[in-house]
Specification:
By secondary structure, the chain is α/β, with parallel strands linked by helices. Among the domains are: 258-275 and 291-486, 3-Layer(aba) Sandwich (Rossmann fold), CATH 3.40.50.12780; 712-833, GMP Synthetase, Chain A, domain 3 (2-Layer Sandwich), CATH 3.30.300.30. It has 26 helices and 36 strands. Strands 17-16-13-11-12-19-20-29 form an eight-stranded mixed beta sheet, with helices on both faces. β6 and β7 form a beta hairpin. α3 (96-105) packs parallel to α8 (197-209) and α10 (259-272) packs antiparallel against α11. The longest helix is centred in the middle third of the chain and has 17 residues, at 293-309. The two termini are 47 Å apart. The structure holds ligand 6R9. Its EC number is 6.2.1.1.
């Protein structure tokens, strides 16, 4: 049997200084675009969190072209042929434990036998690559294109393939290696919320057979000012089938509630006012603060009162462009308290991107800070906001009020540019507000927030979530996927600029009354031991991060980890992209001391909460698999014709029915919502991801199948980068693809055709990268610019991205059929220029 051995203040100035504060922080008070065809307006959507940006930066500095194939040797090297491995959370290979779960989850599938031969590559049984591969005409996908590109599924998955090869060539039995199970020890399982596959099965069965009762019971644990309507025993209505009319989802309609009340007031009223709700850890060690539920409620009330005072009402949008100060989640909760719709834009997006979002949702107010330090780097947020507001004004929309948090640790007030009449210091207006603020009771279906995300066109999609279902679902998923127990300290490294920071740094944990760690800095500053220092400092029990951060830290070796005890850790989590088994193993063995289960949570901005995730203790884990669906989630893997596949299979990951936190629409564009997500495979929500289900019913996510690149766990549309590139006057055409990147998961590889007669130069290369940085944000900067005298196109002008991906991956001998190209000679030219 092969086994894997494998404030100065201490708090916001405007709230009482918490006793545990030690800091000295003054603040916390606290598809081929071309000129010829007209480039799309540049815009970006997402960027890695500050955490992730750091790892991206370090990755590109060292070797931007390294493929992740090296991880393959890691896994081989650490394979041993010793017997069954069991740690405190041990690994084992056993068929029995799984039989229940597998038998049930793999609908229509009877198999539960274990130890059968299957290579790690989850795409073993993927359909063959279609002839021309590229799914989008002219590299310029139409909004809501219903086509998906199977070739990208194949290229995305090379990490897994490589590992399979590596293991095989070392004479290991790949088969058994992939079947290694990591199972929680008896003690862990006994106390787990979901302690067995049987318990999971029972709950899952009820959740899909009678979702109305299942979710009503859970929803009843929250405060509802008025109970929801029940029609024919139903608390939800949905249409997931475009053939039957408009797509529509509603949960708990008629119910009146408030998510801020449930996340704060409810705990304060239950006597928990003095319990710590949030530990804030600044970029600079020693700068920290903590806020209790009482403090947080006071702060949120003050901000909500201020917003009301400047005319923000229920249903109005508020844009938040802030670093990870306590004030960021506070601002979100303050909007929720008064029924305003928050739209957080990651404070790393460029002015252009911010302007685009402002123009789309037309906020009354923008909340920001004058600057922030990330590691040793100062980021002047105020100049970015100023530029964005200027652009928005030129385009016809004027923001009347911009509230600026003076982040004294990063920069001085005197050095901050100012627009009289519009700009106002946060510290001048918030602390003087009353700490009492009436709650606006909203309908469960009233919108809670908007969050822009990348799609396959240049225009970002404003994903809209409503209140009641989102509240119930994020709270429930948080509790179960992390096996959360009252009193535990939980640290999520995500920035609130992304969905993870919404659902699992703010709402999910606070709804459960958990103590959250909010870290402003980056994992490698001042050194690679920072995370573990923080874990020990706050006795973190649950730690949730992204594979890109894990890989960046793994490169620094075990020493910085082992220097710290980490004995408080109980559960680890992963999100953002598929975690490669080598990183999983390192996370498990080194960070978690082979003691802590890893919840590899698959979900999306659109889903609002976890969809496929382990429940620690409930069943054994397989490194790299997100395991099984959460309660109420009915995944379907379909083939290219939309036919649902059963048992062991690979294809496109869809969902058959709504779950409470389904996103309700794309802001201002319901047709795009329908065509993007519901038209490709009729009757299903299409996730945009490829997926394999193995013989045991485990789900293995294999990456995006559309033209979205997942860099450091965050989505960037290739169309957006192409559009930014063609904004450069010397760029005639651009085609962007993803390629395997050792740390970031995927990197950005841009093929660029210059205008006639322009010479290639390093300066131009830098200028092009700078163009993308300024149009979208630094995180979207291409890692590689590949000069392209021409692009491989079919006679109808369709770019064959399959070929570009192969060239980017240096798989020149796997180009496949190029005979349908208008000019096959282009490929030779591109190969010649590969390293130029
Ligand atoms: C939460 C979040 C969503 C896309 C999603 C998928 C990828 C996220 C994953 C994962 C494999 C996981 N993704 N978690 N892939 N395993 N555990 O990241 O939302 O930024 O919208 O990205 O991220 O490709 O479609 P979002």
């Amino acid at each position: 049997m092969t086994t894997l051995s494998c404030g100065v203040l201490s708090g916001p100035i405007c709230c009482p200084a918490p006793s545990s504060a030690r800091g000295v922080r003054g603040a916390a008070g606290s598809s081929g675009a071309s000129k010829r065809s007209g480039g799309r307006p540049g815009n970006g959507e997402r960027e890695p969190s500050s955490f992730l940006s750091a790892s991206s930066a370090s990755a590109s500095a060292s070797d931007s072209s390294t493929s992740s194939s090296s991880s393959g040797s890691d896994i081989t090297a650490s394979c041993s042929s010793s017997g069954v491995f069991r740690g405190r959370f041990g690994a084992r290979a056993s068929p029995s434990a799984l039989s229940g779960a597998a038998g049930r989850v793999g609908r229509g599938w009877t198999g539960a036998t274990f130890g059968i031969s299957r290579a790690i590559c989850p795409l073993r049984c993927m359909a063959p690559t279609p002839g021309t591969g590229a799914a989008f005409t002219n590299g310029r996908p139409a909004a809501g294109s219903s086509q998906v590109d199977l070739t990208s599924v194949l290229s995305v998955d090379t990490r897994y393939k490589t590992e399979t090869h590596a293991a095989a060539s070392a004479g290991e039995q790949v088969v058994e290696e992939t079947q290694v199970l990591f199972e929680a020890n008896e003690e862990f399982r006994k106390n787990a919320l979901v302690s067995s596959t049987e318990k999971y099965e029972e709950m899952y069965k009820q959740s899909v057979e009678d979702p109305d009762t299942f979710w009503s019971e859970i929803a009843s644990q929250f405060h509802w000012e008025k109970k929801w309507d029940v029609t024919d025993g139903k608390v939800h209505t949905e249409n997931f089938d475009v053939r039957k009319g408009p797509i529509k989802v509603e949960w708990f309609k008629g119910g009146k509630t408030n998510i801020c009340y449930n996340a704060l007031d409810r705990h304060v009223e239950a006597g928990r006012a003095n319990d710590v709700a949030m530990f804030w850890e600044g970029n600079e060690p020693g700068y920290d603060s903590s806020v209790t539920f009482g403090n947080l409620l006071d702060l949120v009330s003050q901000v909500s009162n201020y917003l009301r005072s400047v005319g923000v009402k229920k249903g109005d949008a508020v844009v938040i462009y802030m670093p990870m100060l306590v004030e960021l989640p506070v601002a979100m909760l303050a909007c929720a308290r008064i029924g305003a719709i928050h739209s957080v834009v990651f404070a790393g997006f460029s002015a252009d991107s911010l302007a685009q979002r402002i123009l789309d949702c037309k906020p009354k107010v923008v909340l920001t800070a004058n600057g922030v330090m990330r590691g040793t780097k100062f980021i002047n947020l105020k100049t970015i906001v100023d530029d964005a507001l200027k652009q928005a004004k030129q385009e016809g929309y004027t923001v009347e009020t911009s509230v600026v948090f003076a982040n004294e640790v990063a920069t001085k007030k005197e050095e901050t540019a100012w627009v009289e009449g519009r700009d106002i210091w946060w510290q001048d207006v918030i602390p003087s507000q009353s700490t009492k603020s009436e709650v606006e009771w909203v309908d469960a279906e009233d919108p809670l927030f908007l969050l822009y995300t990348s799609g396959s066109t240049g225009k970002p999609k404003g994903v809209l979530h409503s209140t009641g279902g989102y509240m119930v679902y994020t709270a429930t998923t948080f509790k179960h996927a992390f096996d959360y127990r009252p009193g535990e300290v939980y640290w999520c490294t995500a920035d609130c600029g992304w969905i993870t920071g919404h659902s699992y740094l703010t709402y999910g944990p606070l709804l459960n009354g958990a103590t959250v760690v909010n870290f402003e800095g980056v994992p490698t500053y001042p050194d690679a031991g920072r995370c573990w220092e923080i874990v020990d400092k706050y006795n973190v029990n649950i730690f949730y991060t992204a594979p890109t951060a894990i890989r960046a830290l793994m490169r620094e070796g075990d020493k910085p980890v082992k220097k710290h005890s980490r004995k408080s850790l109980r559960v680890l989590g992963s999100v953002g992209e598929p975690i490669n088994p080598a990183a999983w193993k390192w996370y498990y063995e080194v960070v978690g001391d082979s003691r802590c289960p890893i919840s590899d949570t698959w979900w999306q901005t659109e889903t609002g909460g976890f969809m496929i995730t382990p429940m620690p203790g409930g069943w054994p884990l397989k490194p790299g698999s997100a395991t099984f669906p959460f309660f109420g989630v009915q995944p379907a893997i379909v083939d290219e014709n939309g036919k649902e596949l059963h048992g062991e299979c690979s294809g496109y990951l869809c969902v058959k029915a709504s779950w409470p936190s389904t996103f309700r629409t794309l802001f201002g564009d319901h047709p795009r919502y329908e065509t993007t997500y519901f038209a490709p495979f009729k009757g299903f929500y299409f996730s945009g991801d490829g997926c394999h289900r193995d013989k045991d019913g485990y789900y293995w996510l294999t990456g995006r199948v559309d033209d979205v690149i997942n860099v450091s766990g965050h989505r960037i549309g290739s169309a957006e980068v192409e559009s930014a590139l063609v904004h450069h006057p010397l760029c005639a055409e651009a085609a962007v693809v993803g390629y395997d990147h050792e740390v970031k998961g995927q990197g950005i590889y841009a093929f660029v055709t210059l205008v006639e007669g322009v010479e290639y130069s390093d300066k131009l290369r830098k200028d092009l990268i700078a163009k993308v940085r300024s149009q979208i944000g630094p995180f979207a900067a291409p890692d590689i610019i590949h000069w392209a005298p021409g692009l491989p196109k079919t006679r109808s002008g369709k770019i064959m991205r399959r070929i570009l991906r192969k060239i980017a991956a240096n798989q020149i001998d796997e180009l496949g059929d190029v005979s349908t190209l208008a000019d096959p000679g282009v490929v030779e030219q591109l190969i010649e220029l590969r390293d130029k």
